[in-house]
Amino acid sequence: MSEKRTFKVCATESYCSYIIREDITIDVNDYSELEGMTDEEIIDYIESNSESMFKKDDEENVYSLWDEMMEQDIRRDKITGEEFGVIVEKDDETNY
Fold this sequence. Notes:
Number of helices: 2
Number of domains: 1
Radius of gyration: 25 Å
Order of helices and strands: EHHE
Strand order of the largest sheet: 1-2
Low-confidence stretches: none
Shape: elongated
Largest sheet: 2 strands, antiparallel
């Protein structure tokens, strides 16, 4: 009689999701840190610091520029890089 052997198996899925939200228009004059910057410097600064940018004259400073952007509706989403696979491992808990 041969020994009974078992394996645990499961399916895997992975993907990359890319979301673009609706635009908002900002006034450079509303953000003191942007004053005196060139257009290129403003673009670089916003890309790196939007989470810490707050409108001046906003006493509460509740929502950063990043927060405002994240509240916008989704304009487009795309799922790429879908991959599927199988994981197989010996079931060592089987005692026959």
